[in-house]
Amino acid sequence: xSLLEIENLSLTIGATxxxxxxxxxxxxxEVVGLVGESGSGKSMTAxxxxxxxxxxxxxxxxxxxxxxxxxxxxxxxxxxxxxDDIGMVFQEPMTALNPVKTIGEQVAExxxxxxxxxxxxxxxxxxxxxxxxxxxxxxxxxxxxPHELSGGQRQRVxxxxxxxxxxxxxxxxxxxxxxxxxxxAQILDLLRDLVRENRMGLLLIxxxxxVVTEMADxxxxxxxxxxxxxxxxxxxxxxxxxxxxxxxxxxxxxxxARPKKHLAGSAKPLLEVDGVGRDxxxxxxxxxxxxxxxxxxxxxSLTIEPAQSVALVGRSGCGKSTLARMILALDKPTAGxxxxxxxxxxxxxxQALKPxxxxxxxxxxxxxxxxxxxxxxxxxxxxxxxxxxxQLAKAERREMIAHALDExxxxxxxxxxYPHEFSGGQRQRLSIARAIxxxxxxxxxxxxxxxxxxxxxAQILDLFAELNQKLGIAYLFITHDLTVxxxxxxxxxxxxxxxxxxxGKTGDVxxxxxxxxxxxxxxxxxxxxxxxxxxxxxxx
Amino acid sequence: MTAYLLKRLTIAALTLVLASMVVFAVMEILPGxxxxxxxxxxxxxDQVEVLRNQMGLNAPLLLRYLHWVAGLLSLDFxxxxxxxxxxxxxxxxxxxxxxxxxxxxxxxxxxIAIPVGVxxxxxxxxxxxxxxxxxxxxxxxxxxxxxxxxxxxxFAVWLRLVxxxxxxxxxxxxxxxxxxxxxxxxxxxxxxxxxxxxxxxSALIEVLNEDYIRTxxxxxxxxxxxxxxxxxxxxxxxxxxxxxxxxAFLLAGTIIIENVFYLPGLGRLIFQAITQRDLIVxxxxxxxxxxxxxxxxxxxxxxxxxVDPRLxxxx
Lengths: 540, 315
What we know:
CATH architecture of the largest domain in chain B: Orthogonal Bundle
Largest sheet of chain B: none
CATH topology of the largest domain in chain B: MetI-like fold
Number of domains of chain B: 2
Number of strands of chain B: 0
Number of strands of chain A: 20
Order of helices and strands of chain B: HHHHHHHHHHHH
Strand order of the largest sheet of chain A: 6-7-8-3-9-10
Helix content of chain A: 25-40%
Distance between the termini of chain A: 24 Å
Structural class of chain B: mainly alpha
CATH class of the domain at 4-252 in chain A: Alpha Beta
Radius of gyration of chain A: 25 Å
Helix content of chain B: over 70%
Number of helices of chain B: 12
Strand content of chain B: under 5%
Oligomer: heterodimer
């Protein structure tokens, strides 16, 4: 018998239909992947099972969990189920824990609530589950606060909370999206082991087809609140009967066409980073000993040639964003020099940096956070124009903006709109338009597609490739996502603990990594081809 | 933790020194010669000069400032010109009324505001919330002396439960004395409670949208338990900030309320001292009030560290 049966589930919030006739079943010990793009209703399906929907939500259909009709259950019944028989893990580990309570309190709380155990007993059980999820007592006593833990460690605490009472069903909503690939692999391994140990059912929600393929026995693909296809993972993905499944799979593996290959050593370098280091002061441990500085970037040298595309890959916290900030002259190196077009940009006053800033632009990760919501597109995209030598006439200015918008696939009519009127992908186009309006020679892109859905991501990668071909822009992609590096870069640099540990042609580094850090990254990176092949063997 | 507390303590001390300089400077700039004021209009210039020398008014500015501060530290605030008694005696008598009044009002406003804020936040947008926030809006808008008059009419004139004004002194028995402080405390507390309730509500609503609230709900805790155990403590940080800021307004409010209720408190003393140009009394009381506000805000800073472990730093 199934553990969870969702039959013909429809959900509306206010007057907006969110889910339309969703069907889904999970058996004990089974991993079911729920895949879809943002807004497809994945999270709302999860929240329906938990009955934690927002106000004004109305549901129809049947959701049967372990013989209980959840849509008809009272709040008291749901409280008894939540955290005991159904556990849930969320996407954003940095904010999922209460900052003012210790991890011990937060894990023990659910145990005490459901089992009526005393404090001592609950804390003992909390200790056990924290040990199980990889947070041993010696380094992670119960008295730790969330702010003392890293993102990966916090996600382990969230998993401990969800699994403390060995639930029959675990819902994991994008549990690894906010983590780097190595942490992602660790967390997925942990979830897989917990499922096996306790014969839990696992509903794994993700936008990442490769992750779900590696984990799930069966797949359900959701689009605009409707199930487009469902079935065994291997069969669904190898046959790709539904066009949308095919579209998703293709977009996940998309490599943009770049017919004009970059020829290494053909020109003198555009950017030269020479022995650059960056120290941050740390907290002093005692009053009498000076604090040892934290070395975020350590003796890094690299060059980028005109029109070359370079990917800087590494785990979170390895120093890649600090390096990018120094290249953009937003931060000062404590050692070494950075030269742009042969001229040193380190230690120069702001006024003298103007020409360099004009030729060097940036695209950030978050298309939601990088625009002032109260300004119109015309003003936002035109921001870098003050870097130009001459003041532009109004008509000329508008023409340049219109041209930049056209180059990224938006229209001149978009000039009068505000950022909130655009989707995530369109906003990333806007930040690219802002970056290319001064005709820069180098664009630094910090995780430019990791907040985007796969199909949008493929389009944005195409756009980057096209601008590289048409305008000869060189790129420095900062990413922990090796598929971006594979799709876009001529050369890959691997960064680890502040140092560049490996560099070479993209294919060489990603297919035959030599350094330990690069091998760890490659082994942990989800790969759809490999995952499908493995599933085909498992499922026959 | 100690580093944080030491830093806050240092800042508070510096603020106090700076405030004393400002108070002293303002008193220097104000027109009116205390010596002439004491001797009356008919005194000769020589007499005034003699008194000025006696009072140390002709000494250099810095010396006079240091002398004044040294006096404050040893609780010697000088002599009142009008009452001809040491200021400290006046203050000691009056503070026995004003301090209990302020503390009762502060406690009362917190006791009213937090439950109202929680009530409103948990019923956001529904009738109960609208009603409570409407009442709070009224509480912010209506001046406290009007409240005071209405309270006197209702409880003193009509129901005859408490006296309409005056203070019998603590020697008349604690209950009798407290009875005459109840109405003024309520009148002081209500507008403060109204502001605080609005702050508590909006802070709670913000916290209730945080991810960790969802985590707590996913544990199986009922809504009420999540509200009290997880949301309230996080919402306390902005509430404490406002509480500290409000204390200054509370002290200012006592000046009006003590006049309405004929209470022999610091508020009335400072009011009288100002009208009589008894600058030495004004100076002393202002300094005392400044110190009280700084002390309360120091306590607020300390309580942040209790509420929020992130301020304590790594152990």
